[in-house]
């Protein structure tokens, strides 16, 4: 994938950081997108460069259409093409449904679903121009199976699956392949807040009896972002230690 260009949203930390490092190790030039963690994003860029790769950090709130368009323009100005988009940025605002506030619903739908709509729409013209593209969106097991306290997040992530399948049908003729990765619990800042009872229960029901590592997600994403994934369309790949086995 030498000289391919990727935008990885939310790459300053966690799963996005691991995907950025993995893609760079496959020879891809990587945009390390972030919202507010500038120092962490620059550290990821430094890690990639130290390993001989090419990367740049771009701040953009992926819920903001103007910011997304500016990020895409900046990428095209610097590197001339976009081959890969990883819709990874996401948040949670957990609450039991009967207590869920309007803003908790809206914030999660925007960050976990609308962001993918905005980023996908912004990169498609550049991908169509090359008759080539790979889009991988990071959903969640919570979207496939539901999860107590996560109606907003589950709706957004299942929405991301439907969105990806529908877009996949529209763009395959242009050489653009769209797929989804749905992780279970992966050890990042993201799951720091989950209550102890839920942690204990999850560790009991996951056949592997442990949470996943970011390094167990990133290579699968890189494969789906590679030319080799040419006949895998609209697939949802769970990476969950055997938790759901849909
Ligand atoms: P982290 O909380 O560790 O990292 C989130 C990343 O998203 C950060 O880089 C953050 O940027 C970025 N981000 C959040 N909102 C925005 C925004 N509006 N604009 C741009 N960037 C944004 O999360 P994870 O790495 O754990 O999760 C990554 C993805 O994987 C998410 O979509 C999540 O839903 C999904 N996932 C995670 C699971 C887990 O167990 N960890 C399980 C299933 C799915 P900044 O640092 O600047 O704030």
UniProtKB/TrEMBL annotation:
This is 3-oxoacyl-ACP reductase. The keyword tRNA processing does not apply. Pfam families: adh_short_C2. Keywords: Oxidoreductase. Residues 4-184 form the Ketoreductase domain. GO terms for molecular function: oxidoreductase activity. GO terms for biological process: monocarboxylic acid metabolic process. Belongs to the short-chain dehydrogenases/reductases (SDR) family. SUPFAM superfamilies: NAD(P)-binding Rossmann-fold domains. Gene3D superfamilies: NAD(P)-binding Rossmann-like Domain (3.40.50.720). SMART domains: PKS_KR (SM00822). The keyword Oxidoreductase applies.
